[in-house]
Amino acid sequence: MCGIAGLLLFGSVTYVDSRILSDPSWAGLDPLTAKPTTVVGKRVPFVPDWRAKFGVTYRPNESWAYTVAARYSGKQYSTLDNTDIVPHVFGAFDNFLRGRHEGPLQSDPKFLLRFRDR
């Protein structure tokens, strides 16, 4: 598709603005200030605002393929009131960028060797 034989580009981008519209039974406290919090208008837990994946695979022949890819995930929360704001600690859901490359070698249908670096 891009003019180079054996080259495949792939990717996706997603934006989600998921918000809590109502929760009349909420009675939570901010763990840092001990003040009452609300969940209305807060982001839904475990749903990042942005996600993206991009990569390229090159197949010089039927036996070889090389792939390089990257993933990005935006900020997300694990609490309903989004009070988990301390970054870079155990349990935090920080945004991240992760890369990966791999290349399988298949010389025989019964044999597959795959190596990865994550």
SSE order and pairing:
Blueprint: E1 7-15, E2 50-58, E3 66-73, E4 96-108, E5 111-117
Antiparallel strand pairs: 1-2, 2-3, 3-4, 4-5
Please give a structural write-up.
It is a single chain. By secondary structure, this protein is mainly β. It has one domain. Helices cover 0% and strands 39% of the residues. It has no helices and 5 strands. It has a 5-stranded antiparallel sheet with strand order 1-2-3-4-5, with no helix packed on it. It is elongated.
Largest beta-sheet characterization: 5 strands, antiparallel
Query: Stretches where pLDDT falls below 50 for ≥5 residues?
Result: none
> What's the overall geometry?
elongated
Question: How are strands sequenced across the largest beta sheet?
Answer: 1-2-3-4-5
Q: Helix fraction?
A: under 10%
Please state the average pLDDT score: 81
Structural class from helices and strands? mainly beta
Strand content: 35-45%
What is the N-to-C order of secondary-structure elements (H for helix, E for strand)? EEEEE
Number of domains: 1
Provide the gyration radius in Å: 21 Å
Concise account of the structure shown:
The protein has one domain (7-117).
